[in-house]
Amino acid sequence: MRTHTGPEDWRAANRAMWDERVPIHLASDYYDQDGFRRDRDVIRDFEAAEVGDVTGKSLLHLQCHIGQDTLSWAHRGAARVVGLDFSEPAIEAARELAAEVGIGPDRATFLTADVYDAAQAVAASAAAPPAYDVVYTGLGALCWLPDIRRWAETAASLVAPGGFLYLAEFHPLTDVLDDESASRVAYDYFSRDAWVDESPGTYTDFSAPTVHNRRVEWQHTLGDVVSALAAAGLRLEFLHEHDMTMFQRFGSLARGDDGYFRLPADRPRVPLMYSLKATRPRP
């Protein structure tokens, strides 16, 4: 497993960046809080099909941000959902949203903790089960973590016997293609170095005035992610690669009628997202 390098202040910088962007995201069309209050479901169709029926199950959402995905799984029938994020403003927003859509603390709990400390945070909470039928991690989460093996060990420790971890992520190939056309390899797929950026704004509003702009990210190869989960004792059930993505990552992408972005039909396809399911065998 590769060792990643990066600045010592990565966690503090990323937390300050995310904390500042919570109110921007809450007010954005991208998250459409009013629409969520009405429909209460933002789970992507492929995720719903791959995770399956969650009725009566317990679900832990790691790096849950403002809680929309977490509460969507409750709306889809999960008996108990727990969302965890290191941003206190995000967790406060998630708790408020849960109250607004009528999902009480008996069904939804939100915890403030670093994802690497998730097991300790769950153990310390009287409201959170110790292990889960489903541990869920949504899009755009792993790039904020330098140690993918530690993440896998933490996530796996929270999967109940017979349960599974489900991960949907942007494909690491998208980190190496040129930004405009996505037609040539421009960056190192195996880079161990952190990517440090200080651009203002956020993905919901690139022109938003922001102060805490320093952010630190890492890329993780598909092999590293799968190998880390296997080493943590989980059994891979499937690994799916998808030719669509959620936003216009490259200038050449076009949005289809289904809302996803893809390369033009006359271009060879490449994977833009991936998803996987890994189970914890019963004793």
UniProtKB/TrEMBL annotation:
Report the EC code(s) recorded for this entry.
Answer: 2.1.1.-
Identify a single GO molecular function assigned to this protein: methyltransferase activity
Cross-referenced CDD domains:
AdoMet_MTases (cd02440)
Pfam families attached to this UniProt entry: Methyltransf_12 (PF08242)
The UniProt keyword set, sorted, is:
Methyltransferase, Transferase
Coiled-coil region(s): none
Q: Which domain of life is it from?
A: Bacteria
Indicate whether 4Fe-4S appears among the record's keywords: no
Q: Where is the signal peptide?
A: none
Q: Does the keyword field hold Repressor?
A: no
UniProt cross-references to Gene3D superfamilies, sorted A to Z: Vaccinia Virus protein VP39 (3.40.50.150)
Give an example GO biological process: methylation
- Which positions fall inside the Methyltransferase type domain? 60-165
Query: PANTHER family recorded for this chain?
Result: TRANS-ACONITATE 2-METHYLTRANSFERASE-RELATED (PTHR43861)
Q: What is this protein called?
A: Class I SAM-dependent methyltransferase
